[in-house]
Amino acid sequence: MSEELRVITYRQALNETLRAELEHDENVFLIGEEIGIFEGSYKITAGLLEDFGPKRVVDTPISEEGFVGAAIGAAMLGLRPVVEIMTLNFSLVAIDQIVNHAAKMHAMFGQQVKVPMVIRFPGGGGQQLAATHSQNLEVWYAHIPGLKVLAPSTPAEAKSMLTAAIRDDDPVIFLENLALYNVKGEVPDGEQVAEIGRAAVIKPGSDLTVVSYSRGMVTALKVAEEFEQKGVSVEVVDLRSLRPLDRETICESVRKTSRAVVFEDDMLSYGIGAEVSATIGEGAFDWLDAPVRRVAASEVPLPYAKPLELAAMPDAVDLTRVVQETLDATRFTN
Amino acid sequence: MSEELRVITYRQALNETLRAELEHDENVFLIGEEIGIFEGSYKITAGLLEDFGPKRVVDTPISEEGFVGAAIGAAMLGLRPVVEIMTLNFSLVAIDQIVNHAAKMHAMFGQQVKVPMVIRFPGGGGQQLAATHSQNLEVWYAHIPGLKVLAPSTPAEAKSMLTAAIRDDDPVIFLENLALYNVKGEVPDGEQVAEIGRAAVIKPGSDLTVVSYSRGMVTALKVAEEFEQKGVSVEVVDLRSLRPLDRETICESVRKTSRAVVFEDDMLSYGIGAEVSATIGEGAFDWLDAPVRRVAASEVPLPYAKPLELAAMPDAVDLTRVVQETLDATRFTN
Amino acid sequence: MADTKRRTGKQPGDKPEELRSFYEGMSLVRAFELRANEMYARAKIGGYCHLNLGEEATVVGLTAALEGRDYLYTTYRDHGYAIMRGMEPSAVMAELFGKATGVVGGWGGSMHMFDLDKRMLGGYGIVGGQIPPATGAALAIRYRSEPGPDSEAVMCLLGDGTTNIGAFHESLNLAGLWGLPIVYVIVNNRLGMGTTVEGASAEPDLYKRGCAYRIEGDRVDGDDPVAVRDAASAALTRARQERKPGLLELMSYRLKGHSVVDPARYRSKEDTDEAKSNDPVPAFRARLITDGVLTEADADAIDEQADTTVTEAVAFAEDSPDPEVDRLFDGVYASQVANVPSRLPGQPAVVS
Amino acid sequence: MADTKRRTGKQPGDKPEELRSFYEGMSLVRAFELRANEMYARAKIGGYCHLNLGEEATVVGLTAALEGRDYLYTTYRDHGYAIMRGMEPSAVMAELFGKATGVVGGWGGSMHMFDLDKRMLGGYGIVGGQIPPATGAALAIRYRSEPGPDSEAVMCLLGDGTTNIGAFHESLNLAGLWGLPIVYVIVNNRLGMGTTVEGASAEPDLYKRGCAYRIEGDRVDGDDPVAVRDAASAALTRARQERKPGLLELMSYRLKGHSVVDPARYRSKEDTDEAKSNDPVPAFRARLITDGVLTEADADAIDEQADTTVTEAVAFAEDSPDPEVDRLFDGVYASQVANVPSRLPGQPAVVS
Ligand SMILES: Cc1ncc(C[n+]2csc(CCOP(=O)(O)OP(=O)(O)O)c2C)c(N)n1
Ligand SMILES: Cc1ncc(C[n+]2csc(CCOP(=O)(O)OP(=O)(O)O)c2C)c(N)n1
Ligand SMILES: [Mg+2]
Ligand SMILES: [Mg+2]
């Protein structure tokens, strides 16, 4: 392992970045339930209370609407709160503050006030947490002007995108995923600031484009590699920023490959994949050789029992089948 | 005017239907802010407190989360609450009860309990109510399994769909629109129960399909008529049910016309139009002669000033231009 | 209102010029709101429009208690507060007219007056929505400064009906738990739209609701600007120096409908008559004259001045330009980034 | 806990068979939870798993106070309540195992025990989420029936940390305003995950928080099943006959971590030791023996019976079938309608 490149988990990348930003700017503070004494329900904030004290790492009562709104007010006065909501599911009780307040203030108040804040939470199913604790509703937030929505898929992205989010002057929804916290990856040392609003071609290819984000990227890359072995060149696009959405990068890829499949953990109807598919249909129509297919979760409240949960969630087998079907639909041969 | 067919407003259709259902089933009751003494902030419930009393028409404090949740509990015990939330914008403070509770219970509790309730609210901008009071977030609800989402566009649909919603055993989101309340239309007398989950071809045509719903239908039909004069035959599909979405009816229409434009009041990214476009791209790919275009609102918190609000909201001029562009893109001539 | 702090007649501590300025403020707010009502009727103003008619003493007393360094959060019923916090009546009227010269450039309208320099941090249209951010502003003050006489403080207004929403509970608990420099002020105008306080709150003595957070509550006659100012000053001092949040209930009376379009038919004649007879503006005028603070002539002159100011405000609003459509997308984000969707309706989402 | 109702020794009113049954219940819940803990460690149980360890007296006392016609809403910490409300331990264990024979067919798991016939209307995983529906159940009772000794009533459980969320405030206000037959029970186990009551609630005497709604509060020793039962019965009677909502705070103690995966390192040794020394199960066992209600042998027999029951429950759960995947879409809606999306991942949304 070189000095500049370390292999760490997604969790550690987040923890180190929070630490670095707390050191970098005294206006940055963390606020949320159980992030201090308990060190975070998923231990993302481990050690930070001890090192930065209760002023910079604020434990709150179970009052999401109250403390998310309080973070908004603090941001209006120039502080830069980084809010942790334990999981996306619990952001619903605070969503009025996020969407009707944080997202609207800058425009509605004549650009006099900024709301520089980050709201972090993990989404996703697969942990047998049942229907109310397993949701992916990031598409809700991605729909809202005034918000920026980031969804890193690797430890390196977690670091550079969280840094960018904290330094951005707008409210940023920072989507993590329970299944990514222990995923390891190479992370460059030193300050890394991602550019918000850009998708990235993670794996170049020429025959078919798979578009995904967050946890879905792990499966997307795995399946792409497998097809590579079979001589099919799959390009993989990581959306990274759900809002703003980088339509050009998506369409450019499909104009090259002429085939596209969207892979997402969320449910199909009105999901992220719908916008991606509509965007491709509009921006790469003349290049497209087959319908854009979406691989997404079954539309049920996610069940607790493992066999049901597995059946309802999209996996590599599903993606592989749909990629193959899309190739077959265009009589692809290599 | 025949005895069976009366011309009444959308508001009156709702009011008469609520009255009829209160008479039809003693388990039906209305609950919400200012629906009694005040007769509803948009007067939908005028006269009902007087005729049915405070047990059947329940005025509540300003506690959306509390009374929406209370309606859920009452429904669990077999009552059939019809909740009014003043506008869609205020449903955000109650959304945890709607999405994490009402929508999940039947499946998550092993199908032992039903939650027969209706949540009515108007959405939409155009009244100069500014950013927090002018939203169309129905796409959020349409994304959620366990919910049914209806959006009638005429007084007749308002009647038949509200009746169906109240008699349905699941939680139903019933989307109204501020701009539709005074719209008049023919409404058949007697009991009318719509079939949930079906779109409808309101105006048949052969050259291009315009898909819309709720208030958007008024503009869609107006523009379709104008093209008819110019010899272009536009088919207009009213989604009516946003969840379940009637994909077959949409695709069937486009397989016939081979051109499609979606018109919606909401913002473009991740809106209703995205799912409709993706659906057409998947279900009518081989028939499609041009990209599916979406006419939707600008992605800004809606401003108060009339000129800005008008500029940000889609209208007949926008739809006309895009329909023409779509025809031109396919070198359409008649 | 047995336990309401009522005052009558001039008290030793009252300075005449102060009392005079209070009346000037009340007269100006009254004139402004009556004109706004008229302009709405003439379709110069759109959307919702909630007036401070009947609440002038409250508006004047509260804003008089605030220091320039304090922060104010209000409800959508905010015209009077905007003006008394120092915003130009002409800019407030221009906002109502939706003009580029409005306090927020025509983006917010009646419910969303805002001025960063005046530390009026906004009118809010979502019931209870202002309470958590106001509480957070107090958290920021605690984060950055020590308690003491020079400390900043926050005042957060809310209506009687708003005490029943979750945000009120969560916010007061945070303020009590963290010891935040904030004073929550309930403007009890006896109605939330058509609902009475008894019809909405299981504990209708609203100032007592601080009990669930160990926050002291106090009820004051909202028709007396001096009593309001004194109570608010005392609470703000506790907030500054002891970091003790406070809860004030001001007994007031809504003179007209909930908003300009509400005829308020649900109110009994007695009710409305009582409201009229309680009208704080003529009452305070009479009181100052009885107490020899003002002569009839002084009072008339003040009313005329208020009228002139408002007339000038309307003229200014009339003559002001509309906001420019081509700046529609300027304010969506504070930090510009790539790929922000900035398309007018019907423009393609992707240009291929 | 100066003002906590403590009881020691056998009181005149106590019936021996009742006391015996209380111990049987406590012993069973203890045995069940310890086994659940073990099964989780052996990966037979997934997801979150919150135990009633240390709360057995509370569970038994509360369920003993309920009539069959009453409705119970609980939190996610619900295994003991499910069993004591009459659900088969085997079906509860099967639910934890995610089996088709589980109380909700493997759809809910640990946090979502439900049985319509037993009127156990669910464990809820969203903090505070159960409070508004429970309040609505009480509204339905008032809608359909008259007050009186035979009236139904609702019991709604919540944790100490949950008193700080908006739903608590809005619900208690509605119950107080409308006079609903409901008893809100705060199980104060001194912690919300790692946060103490004093660290979360500005008024840490939680039973006093009813003051904001004119709801009477009462604090009781949660380690004494008889005291709990008596207090709950009294409150339920007021709810039935006077339609007066009640608020009970039961002082309890969480023996282990927040959930089975929480080592609770944040707790001091003293704290944990005190918890252990306060363990209600051995305490009640000893008390009954001292009072001559049980002999050592009786108590051992009861413990063995509990152990046997739980062993059978595990065997039943082990042998039970998984839920069938082809029934995945059966339960999404109660009324079947056209075009319900019922596709497995990767299946086309539209078949053209
Ligand atoms: C969350 C929410 N629910 C409902 C409304 C609609 N609404 C606007 S003002 C109002 C009444 C508020 O009454 P009160 O708090 O007494 O303030 P007042 O208008 O009397 O000054 C209501 C219900 C809203 N704006 N937001
Ligand atoms: C709205 C919401 N926020 C946060 C959580 C995460 N969470 C689950 S239990 C819990 C602590 C609850 O503490 P308390 O009310 O005392 O109940 P206890 O677990 O001690 O029985 C938290 C924060 C949640 N489930 N829902
Ligand atoms: Mg009021
Ligand atoms: Mg607890």
Describe the structure.
The complex is a heterotetramer, with two copies of chain A (334 residues) and two copies of chain C (352 residues). Chain A has eleven helices and 14 strands. Chain A has helices at residues 10-24, 48-56, 64-76, 95-108, 138-142, 155-167, 216-229, 247-257, 272-283, 306-312, 316-329, and strands at 5-9, 28-32, 57-59, 80-84, 118-123, 148-150, 172-177, 184-188, 200-203, 208-212, 234-238, 241-243, 260-267, 293-297. Chain A has a seven-stranded mixed sheet with strand order 3-2-4-5-7-6-12, with helices on both faces. A five-stranded mixed sheet of chain A has the order 9-11-10-13-14, with helices on both faces. A two-stranded antiparallel sheet of chain A has the order 1-8. In chain A, helix 6 links the parallel strand 6 (148-150) and strand 7. The longest helix of chain A is centred in the N-terminal third of the chain and has 15 residues, at 10-24. The two termini of chain A are 38 Å apart. The mean pLDDT of chain A is 97. Chain C is 39% helix and 11% strand. In chain C, the strands form two sheets. In chain C, strands 2-1-3-4-8-7 form a six-stranded parallel sheet, sandwiched between helices. In chain C, strands 5-6 form a two-stranded antiparallel ribbon. The N and C termini of chain C lie far apart (70 Å). Chain C contains ten helices and eight strands. With 352 residues, chain C is α/β, with parallel strands linked by helices. In chain C, 62% of the residues are buried. Chains in contact: A-B, A-C, A-D, B-C, B-D, C-D. The interface between A and C is large, with 61 and 52 residues. One thiamine diphosphate (TPP) sits between chains C (75, 77, 125-127, 159-162, 189, 191-193, 258) and B (33, 62, 64, 86, 90, 93).
